[in-house]
Amino acid sequence: MRVYLIRHDESVDRVPGMPDAARCLSARGRVSFREMARRFREAGALPTRMFTSPFVRAVQTAEILSETLQYDGEVAVAPLLAPGFDVEGLNAVLDVCPGAREVALVGHEPDLGRVLTSLLSLKTPYALRKGAIAALDVPDGGNRVRADFAWLLAGDRRIEDPAMLVP
Q1: For 159, which DSSP code?
Q2: Which CATH number fits the domain that encloses residue 108?
Q3: pLDDT tens digit string along 51-84?
């Protein structure tokens, strides 16, 4: 199964009285992620399932992705993708979609970077940039503790060699 770990793009700054979960994408973040979503589509990605953190900025990122891909499925809110997401949460989310070919997961740092680092057994921690998308091939079913790296889109770069994932 191909799994896409997608970090939301730039959000508005924190302000007193606004819960972190309510922070939305900034105007620049929306524009930037539309371009990333277009590149994702051009890379041939076609998620058959899409999940997002319940935080507003992640939901907005997933909506932009869905629109750009002309995805006709449900963009499901998965509370496990909120801050605190880990490999156990990954397994739980993927367990609800057996047989899916491609699954997109929209979430947050540092969680997505930790999951990526763990699944790829990287020697040094890796952090996904805002708006970045990592494509991993994970085994179907069972406890997913390892994955194969497919590629990463970050900024204007496409990385296809996991050795290039340096902090």
Answers
A1: E
A2: 3.40.50.1240
A3: 999 999 999 999 999 999 999 999 999 999 999 9
Closest residue by Cα to residue 60 from 130, 128, 158: 130
Q: Which residue type does 29 have?
A: G
In a domain, 66, yes or no: yes
* Inside any domain, residue 89: yes
Domain of 27, in residue numbers: 2-12+21-159
What is the sign, positive or negative, of the torsion defined by CA atoms of 12, 13, 17, 21? positive
Whether 7 maps to a domain, the answer reads yes
Rounded to whole angstroms, how far apart are CA atoms 109 and 11?
13
Cβ neighbourhood burial of 6 (10 Å; 0-12, 13-18, 19+): buried
Q: How far, in Å, CA of 10 to CA of 112, rounded?
A: 15
C-alpha–C-alpha distance, residues 147 and 129, integer Å: 20
Residue 144 placed within a domain:
yes
Residue type, 156: D
pTM above 0.70, yes or no: yes
Token pair belonging to 39: 């590149």
Our count of domains for the chain comes to 1
Give the residue carrying structure tokens 């199964």: 1
